């Protein structure tokens, strides 16, 4: 057999080889041979090797003889005279000419020549649009190529636009082709002789992914978005916690109405334990930020702080304040890291089947608006509803359009217990879930027990940390009674020196028992809200005295290092340090057209005002005559006393018929009494 041919066969090209050293008898093992990778890879190389081996197996009797020998010729004649099995096991006969051609390829060490050559135009298009149109269209080849390219682009656009199916696209494309052909100079073009054909339409079906992406988000996400698989190996309690809000399928009687309570739930992926907070909503009210914060704090106080948190994209979590609260919590504890991701990156974390009763991330991760796989906590809710909450009165099943009732044709019967009993029954259902073995044979309680035995410990945070993190900042004025938040007053020692000032107070919506003041040094001060005292309460007097002492101590601290100054003396000192006051320059004198001197003399010679009269004397306004009080008259014994009212006499109104002398003005005694009184 040709050794070159055997060496060329894959089975005859070992990477490691051994040879004997006949002189010493030892076996020498050469170093490994490093074979460079080819630059071009042939996807059919395995088929070609199989073909080489099949042909060499047929030629092997002839290859045992030298080239051009009579023995080789005789063997070839014998091989051509009988049948052989082809690669599929079917019998075939080979001509001596074919066998000689195969031998020539082997003698030239050209094994690839033994394999059948693939067509160079394999998978190439053999027509522009369809054979019928290519043969019928009389347009020049350049024009036909242009039309074909335009139709191909039109078909792709139909797929991308979401055209409904192959048949409709073929119809549209055929009519478009006929229109283009007529415009190009083929007036006889119709939809019948310009049929595009199904092959061209199907060739571009992949472009329909564009329409699915843009028009059917659910289908695109469910069937076309690439998936990765995750597992929960290595997760410990509170490594990943998923939060969601679930409307409970239990009707509750509340304030004369029938309502569906909301469950704010937190699912621990390591144990599949679930923590719930029940919220019974009043009319017109929805889940609020304070409800989410209150529930999160309750979960963290019971279980510890989660290392990462996955939240649904629902409106309950969209408040900027809520996100800021989680960021503040991360900064305060350094154990709760935050970044926002698309939900599909963690969609495989939750496996609802794992929570079925038995027969890694570091983030606040928010799901995208539609991300069904990332909301598989709903699967856990379904297990809770069907397997546990269904034990309660008022349960209507998962389909609210087909509510389960206690009697055919009757309305479902609501849960009639009070809120406390309702919450206790829900807690009992959750306890049953925690104690029930799941698909892996262990219950959430069993999983927690195992982690605790391994030494796992929760990360705890003081309640004040949560109060600070989940709060909003308000600018409030500090009054003598403290600060007022929504009608409630609160005071702390730290606020007493700030009375009259406006400060920033942190207010937690979900817990109004305290507010917080952050001083300039970064120290957090809690302010108890709603503290007041009854009249006569001794504690109130003590608190009043305490606050007075705090203010006095603050004043003493402010006064320390100061001295009392005489401010007038300081004013004089300051004036002396200043430049002297400027002297008034000579100005311009205004004269009344040269009469200023005469006016000055008249003013100098003017009579002085009459002197002020003693009490009881009057001066006549015209004559200047002074009237004094009348001398007293002697009383006679038989004269009767007469009552006299001087003011009435002075104010006597004269008779209207009597006209005063026009030459002498009427003397108004009351007016002049008043004038002299003012002068006095």
Task: Provide the residue-averaged pLDDT.
Answer: 75
- For the CA atoms, what is the radius of gyration? 55 Å
Named at the architecture level, the CATH assignment of the largest domain is 2-Layer Sandwich
The coarse overall form would be elongated
What is the compact description of this entry?
The protein is of the alpha+beta class. It has helices at residues 3-8, 45-63, 70-81, 96-107, 131-136, 141-161, 166-184, 198-203, 208-215, 217-224, 289-303, 320-333, 377-387, 419-435, 444-453, 463-469, 538-559, 567-576, 596-605, 646-650, 669-679, and strands at residues 19-20, 27-28, 83-85, 91-93, 241-254, 257-268, 273-279, 309-311, 364-366, 472-477, 483-485, 488-490, 502-507, 514-518, 524-528, 618-619, 626-627.
Question: Can you describe what's shown?
Answer:
- The structure is a single chain.
- With 680 residues, this protein is α+β, with helices and mostly antiparallel strands.
- The protein folds into 4 domains: 112 residues, no CATH class; 85 residues, no CATH class; 221 residues, 2-Layer Sandwich (Nucleotidyltransferase, domain 5), CATH 3.30.420.10; 76 residues, no CATH class.
- It is built from 21 helices and 17 strands.
- The chain has a 5-stranded mixed β-sheet, with helices on both faces.
- The chain is elongated.
- The relative contact order is 0.05.
What descriptors fit this protein?
single chain, 680 residues, alpha+beta, Nucleotidyltransferase, domain 5, 4 domains, five-stranded mixed β-sheet, four-stranded antiparallel β-sheet, 21 helices, 17 strands, disordered N terminus
């Amino acid at each position: 057999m040709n050794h070159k041919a055997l060496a060329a066969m894959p089975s005859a090209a070992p990477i490691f080889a051994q040879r004997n050293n006949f002189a010493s008898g030892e076996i020498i093992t050469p170093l490994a041979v490093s074979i460079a990778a080819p630059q071009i890879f042939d996807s059919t190389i395995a088929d070609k090797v199989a073909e080489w081996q099949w042909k060499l197996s047929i030629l092997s009797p002839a290859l045992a003889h030298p080239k051009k020998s009579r023995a080789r010729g005789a063997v070839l004649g014998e091989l051509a005279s009988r049948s052989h099995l082809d690669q599929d096991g079917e019998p075939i006969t080979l001509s001596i000419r074919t066998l000689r051609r195969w031998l020539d390829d082997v003698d030239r060490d050209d094994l690839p020549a033994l394999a059948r050559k693939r067509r160079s135009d394999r998978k190439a298009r053999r027509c522009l649009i369809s054979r019928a149109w290519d043969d019928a269209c009389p347009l020049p080849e350049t024009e036909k190529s242009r039309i074909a390219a335009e139709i191909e682009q039109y078909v792709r656009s139909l797929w991308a636009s979401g055209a409904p199916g192959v048949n409709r696209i073929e119809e549209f494309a055929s009519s478009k082709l006929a229109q283009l052909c007529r415009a190009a100079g083929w007036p006889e073009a119709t939809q019948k002789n310009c049929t595009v054909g199904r092959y061209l339409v199907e060739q571009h079906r992949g472009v329909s992914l564009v329409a699915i992406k843009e028009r059917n988000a659910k289908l695109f996400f469910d069937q076309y978005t690439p998936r990765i698989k995750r597992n929960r190996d290595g997760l410990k309690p509170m490594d990943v916690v998923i939060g969601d809000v679930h409307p409970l399928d239990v009707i509750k009687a509340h304030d004369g109405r029938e309502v569906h309570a909301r469950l704010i739930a937190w699912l621990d992926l390591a144990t599949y334990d679930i923590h719930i907070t029940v919220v019974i909503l009043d009319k017109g009210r929805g889940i609020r930020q304070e409800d989410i914060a209150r529930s999160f704090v309750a979960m963290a106080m019971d279980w510890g702080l989660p290392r990462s948190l996955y939240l649904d994209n629902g409106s309950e979590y969209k408040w900027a304040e809520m996100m800021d609260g989680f960021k503040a919590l991360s900064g305060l504890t350094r154990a709760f890291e935050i970044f926002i991701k698309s939900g599909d990156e963690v969609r495989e974390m939750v496996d609802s089947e794992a929570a079925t009763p038995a027969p890694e991330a570091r983030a606040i991760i928010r799901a995208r608006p539609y991300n069904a796989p990332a909301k598989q906590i709903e699967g856990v809710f379904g297990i809770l509803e069907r397997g546990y909450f269904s034990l309660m009165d008022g349960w209507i099943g998962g389909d609210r359009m087909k509510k389960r009732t206690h009697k055919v044709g009757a309305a479902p019967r609501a849960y009639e217990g009070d809120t406390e009993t309702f919450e206790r029954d829900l807690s009992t259902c959750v306890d049953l879930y925690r104690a029930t073995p799941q698909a892996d044979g262990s219950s959430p309680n069993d999983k927690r027990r195992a982690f605790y035995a391994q030494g796992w410990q929760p990360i705890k945070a003081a309640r004040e940390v949560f109060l600070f993190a989940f709060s909003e900042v308000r600018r409030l004025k500090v009054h003598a009674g403290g600060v007022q938040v929504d009608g409630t007053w609160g005071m702390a020692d730290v606020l007493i020196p700030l009375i009259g000032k406006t400060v920033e107070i942190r207010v937690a919506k979900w817990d109004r028992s305290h507010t917080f003041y952050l001083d300039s040094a970064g120290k957090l001060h809690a302010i108890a809200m709603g503290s007041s005292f009854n009249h006569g309460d001794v504690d109130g007097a003590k608190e009043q005295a305490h606050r007075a002492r705090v203010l006095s101590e603050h004043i003493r601290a402010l006064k320390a290092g100061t001295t009392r100054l005489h401010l007038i003396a300081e004013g004089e000192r300051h004036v002396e340090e200043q430049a002297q006051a400027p002297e008034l320059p000579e100005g311009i004198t205004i004269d009344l057209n040269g009469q200023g001197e005469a006016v000055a003399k008249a003013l100098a010679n003017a009579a002085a005002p009459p002197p002020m009269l003693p009490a009881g004397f009057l001066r006549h306004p015209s004559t200047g005559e002074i009237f004094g009080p009348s001398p007293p008259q002697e009383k006679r014994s038989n004269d009767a006393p007469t009552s006299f009212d001087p003011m009435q006499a002075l104010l006597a109104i004269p008779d209207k018929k009597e006209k005063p002398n026009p030459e002498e003005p009427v003397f108004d005694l009351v007016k002049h009494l008043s004038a002299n009184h003012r002068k006095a």
